[in-house]
Structure formats: C-alpha cells, structure tokens
C-alpha cells in the first residue's frame, strides 16, 4: 500500500476524489497526512469527516520559505510518506522541499500544460480562445505548474462557456485522472527516462487508461 501525503489550500474536492477512490477499493494507497497552509480550508473538514490526520502549517509562522518547506517535509517524512500529492496546494515549492522526495511530488493543474500555467488557468483558456483545454497531473519540478507529464485529459471549450462552466467540466476529469496517477505510482509503473516519464503498460501515452 502506497503511503501518501496530500497538500491542500482550499476546497479539497480533489482530496475527496482520492478519499473516495480509496474507500471504493480502486486506489491502493493510504493517506498518512493532509497538510493545509490555510486554516480555513474546507479540505480540513473533509479530513475530520473521514478520520484523516491533518495539520495546518502556515507560511506566516516561519521567517523564511526554506524553514516553512523544511517543516512540511519533516512532518511528511515522519509519517513515512512515499508520494506527495499537491491537490489544490497554491504555493510553489522549491528544491528545499523537492529534494526530500525526488520525482515523488505530483500536482494536478486545470489546463493542458505547458498551456495556461499559473493562476486562473480556466479563465486564461477562455480569454485565449482555446477550443480545447483540460487537466494535467505532472511530476513537480521547480517551474510553476511544470514538470514531466503523467496523465492529461482533454475537454472541449464550448462557445457559451464561462470560467465556472469550464472549471466544472475540467474538474470532473481532475477527479478521475488524479486517483489514476496515484494508482500508477502504487503499482510501481511510473519511471523516468531522462526528462520523460514512462508508464509501464500504458498503451496510449498519456491518456487515462488502465
Ligand atoms: C483544482 O482545479 C486544481 O486543479 C487547481 O486548484 C483547484 C483545487 O480544487 N490547482 C491549481 O490551479 C494549481 N496551480 P480543489 O481544492 O477542489 O481540489
């Protein structure tokens, strides 16, 4: 069973998708710790409901970003976490953190990266006039919403879409691809070939297949 830690900042619907997949027996992983940098995150309520260990680690309580990241890394290490999942964690992690979990920090982002990185990805897609967008689960490197792609799902951007309707459409796929990506790690199917990430046994490159 893969021991995971989940970092959140807000609503936590992706955290919920992970919880549901575990409870449904589709995802062979255990959530050892949830860390929120935001004490008001709805994600923390979800932890209570499902008896998950959670901690609040606020940036403002540390004099440097380095100390903040070290504190998070050490809490995760103490719990024996093998894979760190950023599920709506709205901070950029530096190498101080990433070096503790090489190629073992993953993030979900609501666009087909490298398009529309950063904040408000869905609004960016609409304002750009993109006809398709989607979501990406990727290994985190020091770039913003960048790093080797694990899986992507594509959705159309409809002429009548606004930020909310597009976000909703993308989110329904986020909830599918994130547990899928974690399951691939759990099965030991993910490896790096240079900069490229390979999923053993996946027939269609980055499509969400079993
Ligand atoms: C999700 O749409 C996720 O892709 C996005 O924040 C939302 C969190 O929702 N993440 C990013 O934009 C990261 N750059 P959630 O809290 O309900 O999972």
Automatic annotation (TrEMBL):
<feature type="site" description="Raises pKa of active site His">
    <location>
        <position position="145"/>
    </location>
</feature>
<dbReference type="InterPro" id="IPR001555">
    <property type="entry name" value="GART_AS"/>
</dbReference>
<dbReference type="InterPro" id="IPR004607">
    <property type="entry name" value="GART"/>
</dbReference>
<feature type="binding site">
    <location>
        <begin position="12"/>
        <end position="14"/>
    </location>
    <ligand>
        <name>N(1)-(5-phospho-beta-D-ribosyl)glycinamide</name>
    </ligand>
</feature>
<dbReference type="GO" id="GO:0005829">
    <property type="term" value="C:cytosol"/>
</dbReference>
<protein>
    <recommendedName>
        <fullName>Phosphoribosylglycinamide formyltransferase</fullName>
        <ecNumber>2.1.2.2</ecNumber>
    </recommendedName>
</protein>
<feature type="domain" description="Formyl transferase N-terminal">
    <location>
        <begin position="3"/>
        <end position="182"/>
    </location>
</feature>
<dbReference type="InterPro" id="IPR002376">
    <property type="entry name" value="Formyl_transf_N"/>
</dbReference>
<dbReference type="InterPro" id="IPR036477">
    <property type="entry name" value="Formyl_transf_N_sf"/>
</dbReference>
<keyword id="KW-0658">Purine biosynthesis</keyword>
<comment type="similarity">
    <text>Belongs to the GART family.</text>
</comment>
<dbReference type="GO" id="GO:0006189">
    <property type="term" value="P:'de novo' IMP biosynthetic process"/>
</dbReference>
<comment type="pathway">
    <text>Purine metabolism; IMP biosynthesis via de novo pathway; N(2)-formyl-N(1)-(5-phospho-D-ribosyl)glycinamide from N(1)-(5-phospho-D-ribosyl)glycinamide (10-formyl THF route): step 1/1.</text>
</comment>
<keyword id="KW-0808">Transferase</keyword>
<comment type="function">
    <text>Catalyzes the transfer of a formyl group from 10-formyltetrahydrofolate to 5-phospho-ribosyl-glycinamide (GAR), producing 5-phospho-ribosyl-N-formylglycinamide (FGAR) and tetrahydrofolate.</text>
</comment>
<feature type="binding site">
    <location>
        <position position="65"/>
    </location>
    <ligand>
        <name>(6R)-10-formyltetrahydrofolate</name>
    </ligand>
</feature>
<feature type="binding site">
    <location>
        <begin position="90"/>
        <end position="93"/>
    </location>
    <ligand>
        <name>(6R)-10-formyltetrahydrofolate</name>
    </ligand>
</feature>
<feature type="active site" description="Proton donor">
    <location>
        <position position="109"/>
    </location>
</feature>
<dbReference type="Pfam" id="PF00551">
    <property type="entry name" value="Formyl_trans_N"/>
</dbReference>
<dbReference type="GO" id="GO:0004644">
    <property type="term" value="F:phosphoribosylglycinamide formyltransferase activity"/>
</dbReference>
<feature type="binding site">
    <location>
        <position position="107"/>
    </location>
    <ligand>
        <name>(6R)-10-formyltetrahydrofolate</name>
    </ligand>
</feature>
């Amino acid at each position: 069973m893969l021991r995971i830690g989940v970092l959140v900042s807000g609503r936590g619907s992706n955290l919920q998708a992970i919880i549901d997949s575990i409870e449904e027996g589709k995802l062979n992983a255990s959530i050892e710790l949830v860390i929120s940098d935001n004490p008001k995150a709805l994600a923390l309520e979800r932890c209570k409901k499902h008896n998950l260990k959670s901690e609040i680690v606020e940036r403002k309580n540390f004099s440097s970003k380095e100390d903040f990241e070290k504190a998070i890394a050490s809490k995760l290490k103490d719990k024996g976490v093998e894979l760190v999942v950023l599920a709506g964690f709205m901070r950029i992690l530096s190498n101080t953190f990433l070096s503790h979990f090489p190629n073992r920090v993953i993030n979900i982002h609501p666009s087909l990266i490298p398009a529309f990185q950063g904040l408000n990805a869905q609004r960016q897609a609409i304002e750009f006039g993109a006809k398709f967008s989607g979501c990406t689960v990727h290994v985190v490197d020091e770039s913003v919403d960048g790093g080797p792609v694990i899986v992507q799902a594509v959705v159309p951007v409809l002429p009548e879409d606004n930020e909310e309707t597009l976000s909703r459409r993308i989110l329904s796929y986020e909830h599918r691809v994130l547990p899928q990506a974690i399951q691939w790690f759990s099965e030991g199917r993910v490896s790096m070939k240079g900069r490229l990430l390979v999923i053993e046994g996946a027939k269609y490159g980055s499509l969400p297949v079993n």
